[in-house]
Amino acid sequence: MLLALAFPDWLTNEENLTLATWGLVAATFLLFIVTVILYFDSRSKGKEQRRRWAQEDESRTREQLARWEREDRLREEDAKPKVVVEIGKRENAPEIVFKCFNLGNTIFFIDQMIIQGTSPNRCTRTSDLEGPPVLLPGTFVTTTYDCEGLITDGFQEANAVFVLRGAHGLECTEPVWFYVSPDPTQGYDWTRGRLADRLPGAMVPQPRSIPKGQ
Asked: What is the pLDDT of residue 162?
């Protein structure tokens, strides 16, 4: 009751009013300082968050670009012809039998076969194939080559390359090496590999035997 009676006197007391005013000013100033601190702290955190988002976006962009590049390389690699060329010999026939196998997933056709000798004048002969043969995935084409024109001065080392045409232009197979020698019974004979394979002690690869009709 006494506190309630004294309260109006406290409010009208000039000294107490001054203290209350300065207290309010101090509280307002402190509130302003806290607000400024919170503002700059929030702004700093916002910048840091935006920086992290930017880094994450950049990282995701780099990962996406790298993934697209990998996919493009895989598609480009998958579109290239993947072939294996085998050479063989039919019984009682000197000609070389070439078999070109399509082991990839793309369709291509064979433009030509190039035979290149290494001596004495690096003679080159081009054999245009009829068709030209279109190779579907999992199929192969067979063609023969008469080496009589390669016999000049004894042994002749040569290689065969198939020129393939696909969606990405021309591709050449790896050279298949062989060497040709004169034979009195059928004009010439040939063996797989290079002349270096004839070194003493070296294993000379034999041509694969091709059944008749293949």
From this structure: 92
